[in-house]
Amino acid sequence: MDAVDNPYTPNAGARPEILIGRDEQTQAFRTLLRRLRRGRTEQSMIITGLRGVGKTVLLNSFRTIAQEEGWEVIEFEAVKHGENRFRQTLASQLKASLLRMSPRARWSDRARRAAEALSAFSASVDSTGTWSIGWDIPPAEGIADHGDLAMDLTDVLVAIGEAASEHGRGLALLIDEVQFLETPQLESLIQAIHKTVQRSLPVTFVGAGLPQIAELAGDAKSYAERLFKFPSIGSLGDEDARLALVEPAAAEGAIYEPGAVEAAIEITHGYPYFIQELGYQVWTVAENNRISAEHIELAKGAYEAKLDGSFFRVRLDRATPLQTAYMRAMAELGSAPQKASDVAALLDRTSTQLGPTRAELIEMGLLYTPEHGYAAFTVPDFDEFMKRAVPILEVPPVGQRRRRP
Predict the structure, then answer these.
(1) Which residue has the higher pLDDT, 132 or 75?
(2) What is the DSSP letter of 232?
(3) pTM of the entire structure?
(4) Which residues pair with 253 in a beta bridge?
(5) Residue 77: phi, psi to the nearest 5?
(6) Which residue has the higher pLDDT, 210 or 18?
(7) How many CB atoms sit inside 10 A of residue 3's CB?
(8) Do strands 290-291 and 367-368 pair parallel, antiparallel, or not at all (unpaired)?
(9) What distance in Å separates the CA atoms of residue 283 and residue 281, rounded to the nearest whole number?
């Protein structure tokens, strides 16, 4: 069928033409914004789930909803960097949001106070000298100038929240890959949002990350579990998976036969990204706007090759030989979460010896710990990929930690 008409979008964070199975989360977000605007409290949320389940897509939908509701949106993907870079990222986007809410020529006292707080927040000295957010507003004294990230960010978000409230607006911080925030950064965000909740200000932080983020947030601040909901999203149920596959095709005049739908769900296990990838490949082999089980089988090889060459491979390529062996041993044991001692035994080493390797894989976002002593892959079907990519489990000599070429 015509490639131009292909309705599937197997790209990182790309919104499917029809978003299926996430109504509960989108409605909860809309309710959150509306309650905050009315001065009422509501738990914010940090969405958790494996790779490819649509966390980024959901955040992008939240951005659209926030803009429809008249809120300012700050959005970025967390990466591992120092406090100065974190301050700079926030300060530059907060400045733009403040100016959109209240142009400088019409600043009220609250807006000017927020601007002064931003100047204080952004003042930082590093090896290259002093940087700021690029305007001539003098920094506030005694506000956002404590030299403590949590206290400074709290002052800034309170000041901007007061300015937003004055204009009948709100501010939503949408942060992806939250697990890569450093502990002081996550702690600061939670503390600052806690204060805006206490002040009934229209400011919220919604994040998305791998399953371990709920534990990380709780470790950062004990009250995080009361401040946030932690909805977990995963594979779609059979009916939602069917709709996610069939409806985009129907919009282009193509029909899936029942046997084709069953075969596609069995292959993809209902994971949203996998559905998009399989649907895309099936479209290239189907003819006459009718898709059969035979077309699913014809597309399966290209589907697996595409996942192996991009979605899966990019993660394996970052691993050292020992990290690779650890993941291959996990795959050998099965798709379920694996006990650290069982993996170590298969590699003929002790859990203590492999503890640093396991910790590195968790830090890299390749594994997470669903319960104490166990680890699981953050990517669906990664165990099957490991068996294809590394057919034989080879354990490198003790001390070999060189990265893959």
Answers:
(1) 75
(2) B
(3) 0.88
(4) none
(5) -100, 125
(6) 210
(7) 8
(8) unpaired
(9) 5
Nearest to 180 by CA among 79, 268, 259, 84: 79
- Sorted by where each starts, the structural domains of the chain and their CATH numbers stand as 23-229 (3.40.50.300), 236-314 (1.10.8.60), 318-389 (1.10.10.10)
66 vs 73: CA distance, rounded Å: 7
Looking at residue 399, what is its pLDDT?
A: 63
Strand ranges of the sheet holding 44-48, from the earlier edge strand across to the other edge = 72-77, 171-176, 203-209, 44-48, 228-229
Average pLDDT on 45-57 reads: 93
Helix, strand, or coil (residue 20):
coil
pLDDT tens-place string over residues 86-95: 998 999 999 9
- Could you read off the pLDDT of 170-227 as tens digits, one per residue? 999 999 999 999 999 999 999 999 999 999 999 999 999 999 888 888 877 778 888 9
Reading the block at residue 292, the tokens are 């059969």
Question: What single-letter DSSP state applies at residue 288?
Answer: T
Provide the token pair at 154: 């709290």
N-to-C CA span, the chain: 40
Smallest Cα–Cα separation from 25: which of 50, 51, 49?
A: 49
Strand partners of residue 160: none
Instruction: Please name every residue paired with 76 in a beta bridge, in sequence order, or none if there are none.
Output: 175
